[in-house]
Amino acid sequence: MSALSPQPLSPLDGRYASAVSELGEFLSEAGLNRARIQVEVEWLIYLTDHSLFGSTPIELEKQRQLRQLAPNFGDDEVAELGALESTTKHDVKAVEYYVRRRLSELGLNDIAELTHFAATSEDINNLSYALVIRDAVTEVWLPAFRAVIDELRAQAVQYRDDAMLARTHGQPATPTTMGKELAVTVYRLERIRKQVEAAEYLGKFSGATGTFAAHLSADGDLDWQAVSREFVTSLGLTWNPLTTQIESHDWQAELYSQVAHGNRILHNLCTDVWTYISLGYFTQIPVAGATGSSTMPHKINPIKFENAEANLELSSALLDSLAQTLVTSRLQRDLTDSTTQRNVGVALGHSLLALSNITAGLGQISLNRELLAEDLDTNWEVLAEAIQTVVRAEITAGRSSITDPYALLKELTRGKRIGADDLAAFVDGLDIGDAAKQRLLALTPHTYVGISSALVEHIL
Ligand SMILES: O=C(O)C[C@H](Nc1ncnc2c1ncn2[C@@H]1O[C@H](COP(=O)(O)O)[C@@H](O)[C@H]1O)C(=O)O
């Protein structure tokens, strides 16, 4: 017998709860049920507002009270719905009974049979999911994503002129600036941001097999497609006219692929920043009272970036799984999507947690300009590329009789450490025009950064 009460199984509901709880507002079971109540109520109001089947519009005060059911869906109401579901063993049917009870309390029994009218559960479910996923993405995930981009952009601008040795293949390579490198990530993330901001949230509302058969049997003269479109779009969603029982979930697959892609770009950022910290390019600002290593007192470990890396991997794995499985459903429906979609919050939650750690991590680093400069000063051989390129231009212009500039430079520099003086002597002895020689002699690893600083303009 355990001394513990039931414990949260997921770390998102345990140690990381404070960082991701905002998502639970929308993507928890309660959030989903609240949206289901909203959709059932709106359908009821729609039907009565249009006086269908001899009904009359619900008086405004009672409409207001019905519309309060969703925002007022609290702990007691969750328990009541849970009790209903323990009898129905059907989650959406339980919501229908819950709404019927409230109608009865409001003296609206005469329209009780219009609750869930002609709807299959998926009609309610798909609209509810579209609403909660839309709100979770636009109100929680995107703001956190934008916060990372904004912080990165600020640092890209701050460090746009700070020359840094590049390391293609991990080896000293043509210098760049720290700001330009961060700007590359901003540019990539901005594309994802725009895609996610433009995401479509589709909804279907067409009955058990998407044919409006039940609707037509109740009223054969009504343009039920027009009703369906008007109702779906009134919720701020895009109407999907042609489906089986279920909304086909293609929009979800698209959205999750975009978010997973964003995760992977962020993962690349985390491992790069981790490496820059490891090289000493970024210094970590000590947090008062915090312990780096339990045994090595000198250390500050880059734990925010490592935590983010792990959470991005988990998020992407879940998002990939969702994107793959949600687009298939046997024949007109199977229930795999019902079970799978319950994990959308978990998938976005791991990404949200990573975003909050990246923002925090970026706020705890500062550029070590001395080390960047020192590194450049000990790698003059990176100018070999510039010298070779100038010699080629001089040969072409007829100002040089050198035959194989690449071999010449390779001989001088490959795998060797050469200093400013060695290089100056080499350039001085080159058979090239005077202007080109002066240009080369003026070059240092610090200034051989091309238009790095100007490239940062692309993210402004
Ligand atoms: O409108 C309908 O219900 C039509 C019915 N299809 C269903 N559509 C949507 N939900 C259904 C369906 N069937 C079951 N359930 C209920 O789904 C819940 C599945 O639970 P879980 O696996 O935990 O996600 C769980 O609560 C199930 O009871 C059909 O026969 O085509």
Could you list some keywords that capture this structure?
elongated; two-stranded parallel sheet; Ribonucleotide Reductase Protein R1, domain 1; two-stranded antiparallel sheet; mainly alpha; binds the ligand O=C(O)C[C@H](Nc1ncnc2c1ncn2[C@@H]1O[C@H](COP(=O)(O)O)[C@@H](O)[C@H]1O)C(=O)O; Fumarase C, Chain A, domain 2; 3 domains; Fumarase C, Chain B, domain 1; 460 residues
SSE topology sketch:
Blueprint: H1 17-27, H2 29-49, H3 60-67, H4 75-88, H5 91-105, H6 121-158, E1 163-166, E2 173-177, H7 178-197, E3 202-203, H8 213-218, H9 224-234, E4 238-239, H10 250-279, E5 282-284, H11 303-325, H12 336-341, H13 344-362, E6 365-367, H14 369-377, H15 384-396, H16 405-413, H17 420-428, H18 434-442, H19 452-455
Parallel strand pairs: 3-4
Antiparallel strand pairs: 1-2, 5-6
The ligand O=C(O)C[C@H](Nc1ncnc2c1ncn2[C@@H]1O[C@H](COP(=O)(O)O)[C@@H](O)[C@H]1O)C(=O)O binds next to α5, α6 and α12.
Short characterization:
InterPro entries: Fumarase/histidase_N, Fumarate_lyase_CS, Fumarate_lyase_fam, Fumarate_lyase_N, L-Aspartase-like, PurB_bact, PurB_C. The chain has helices spanning 17-27, 29-49, 60-67, 75-88, 91-105, 121-158, 178-197, 213-218, 224-234, 250-279, 303-325, 336-341, 344-362, 369-377, 384-396, 405-413, 420-428, 434-442, 452-455, and strands spanning 163-166, 173-177, 202-203, 238-239, 282-284, 365-367. The chain is mainly α.
